[in-house]
Design brief:
Elements: E1 4-6, H1 8-12, H2 15-18, E2 23-25, H3 27-33, H4 40-48, E3 52-54, H5 59-72, H6 80-92, E4 95-97, H7 101-109, E5 113-115, E6 126-131, E7 138-139, E8 153-158
Parallel strand pairs: 1-2, 1-4, 2-3, 4-5
Antiparallel strand pairs: 6-7, 6-8
Helix pairs in contact: 5-6, 5-7
Length: 159
């Protein structure tokens, strides 16, 4: 069975309020978006009618998501909520509804289904590398070049 898994941007865009499909999210994403005052009653209705389900990913799925995010170099850009959405998608083989580039990049590298909301979605998929524009060296992480002290930049190495 396919699951639609919503990140916070899907709620801000109104996805679950315009759809008759069942949706899933995690408690950390729900905690992030439940302050939406104008839709608070609508959120309650979605939960009461079981069209929105809150589900936690397993520890194993969470570890897989963290490893994948570190492998692509997106980990520093991803919140706990973002990681929970990726982990839930790994576990359920669902479809993530998001416009977040980092979530999309990790998910596409894992060959998970992604649907954008208000954008065309990402076209370039790859792994991030940190590089020094001063001495032109690549680094796995960091903010400053260990050789010359220049602030590091990031670029996507496309697959």
């Amino acid at each position: 069975m396919d699951f639609r898994i919503l990140d916070a941007s899907a709620f801000y865009a109104g996805v679950p309020f315009r759809s008759s499909e069942d949706c899933y999210t995690t408690s950390s994403v729900y905690d992030e978006i439940k302050h939406i005052k104008k839709n608070h009653d609508a959120l309650g209705t979605l939960l009461e009618t079981n069209r929105l389900k809150i589900r936690e990913p397993s520890e194993e799925s969470t570890k897989s998501a963290i490893k994948a995010a570190k492998d692509t170099g997106d980990f520093p850009q991803l919140s706990k909520q973002d990681m929970s959405v990726i982990a839930l998608c790994i576990e359920t083989k669902g479809e993530i509804i998001t416009d977040d580039f980092a979530i999309s990049n990790v998910a596409k590298n894992l060959e998970l289904k992604i649907s954008p909301i208000m954008t065309k979605g990402i076209t370039d998929v790859g792994k991030w590398v940190h590089y020094c524009p001063g001495c032109r060296t690549n680094h796995s992480s960091g903010t400053e070049c260990p050789a010359c002290g220049t602030p590091l930049k990031r670029k996507l190495l496309k697959d």
